[in-house]
Amino acid sequence: MIYIDYQATTPLSPEVFEVMAPWLRDHFANPHSAHKPGRAAAAAVEAARGRVAALMPEGGRVIFTSGATEALNIAIVGAAKRMRENSPERTRIITVDTEHAAVRDTVLALAEQGFEPVLLPVDAEGLADQEALAVELDERTALLAVMLVNNEIGVIQPVEALAKQAHAVGALFLCDAVQGYGRVDLPVSADMIAVSGHKIHGPKGVGALWLRDGLDLPPLIHGGGQEGGLRSGTLSPALCVGMGEAARLMMERREQDMVQVEALWACARDLFSNWTLNGSAEQRYHGNLNLRRDGLDSARLMSECRDVAFSLGSACASGSGRPSHVLRAIGLDDREARSSIRLGFGRYTSMEELEAAAEIINHAADRQLL
Fold first, then answer.
1. Residue whose C-alpha is closest to residue 350's, from 253, 247, 263, 246
2. How far is residue 128's CA from residue 123's CA, in Å, rounded to a whole number?
């Protein structure tokens, strides 16, 4: 099986597996216990926290969560409530129409609590409409939430500039950095940043929320008051250690990984030269290739390419049967959206694997379009 679906999840690094194994097998203590094994587990968690924080802006703290979805929910719901408590007129929550469902659906759900969700349109390249933002962003805004690297089309939003625009009207700025953490520069002006372990060659089931110093949010769930009272529940030292090691490797191997991705991107653009690229070619993370061919049935294509693991879009919405909201937002009709595929590659993808995958996919697509 050739795996080219890095936006859905990344292969676990061997180094990560090795550092996790003792915490799964031998060191089973609760990191919130006061005895010696518990303190050792807590120390391991704190070391991991420092490694995750090392890739974040200065002047903030890292809260471990079960994943980016939980981190984003804590940030969005907590920020909305806190801002309205401080200023009752701040009920507007703005995000971009192409955001991941973890952001988009959470923002929309806040309408039931009296907030005003706003979905900003994007242009044909997938970039946020700056004119629309200028109209919507005002003193009623509590939060602006924008993804760094889009999970479906790889487009990089100008998040640093957007954060400053939010601050100019007194609003908070949240960045979903799941696809960009360790790969693309993070916005130093952000108030909150959410990341995920399994998108950086770490384990599933763990993520983190970075909060700027001085920002106090109400908890989403209640319990033992762990993670500074913001995220109750017993932490898994194994998962935290694994994410910490994955973050350390992202920092250590950033240049090497970037060279690898650029070489794969250049090769893939040649191998799929008769496909149309979805989203910006310039403002984009090059480990993501979202493509379409007119008249193609991409779901059928996937069933015909059983030896290649790729996707039609977000893994979280893969069973919905609906065309991608991201592709529709950039102007594609349902037929074009259903003729699109997403390829993702990175650290452990070989050129030979990419070439073999392209041959299989192109052959199946050509046969279908005869």
1. 263
2. 7
Chain Cα centroid distance, residue 178: 2
Domain that holds residue 320: 2-9+253-368
Which residue is catalytic, options 175, 240, 267, 316? 316
Choosing from 201, 236, 251, the residue where a domain stops is 251
Q: Which of 251, 266, 289 lies at the terminal end of a domain, its last residue?
A: 251
Q: Are strands 288-292 and 276-277 parallel, antiparallel or unpaired?
A: antiparallel
259 residue type, one letter: V
Rounded Cα–Cα distance for residues 156 and 177 (Å): 10
Locate 61 and state its tokens.
Answer: 């703290």
SS3 content of the chain, % helix, strand, coil (to 5): 40, 15, 40
CATH number of the domain bearing residue 305: 3.90.1150.10
Consecutive sets of 10 residues in the chain, 370 residues long: mean pLDDT of each?
98 98 95 96 98 98 98 98 97 98 98 98 95 95 98 98 97 98 97 98 98 96 92 96 98 98 98 97 97 96 96 62 87 95 98 98 95
Tell me the C-alpha distance between 254 and 259, whole Å: 9
- Residues ≥6 apart with Cβ < 8 Å to 230: 63, 74, 78, 209, 211, 217, 219
In the residue annotation, 316 being an active-site residue is answered as yes
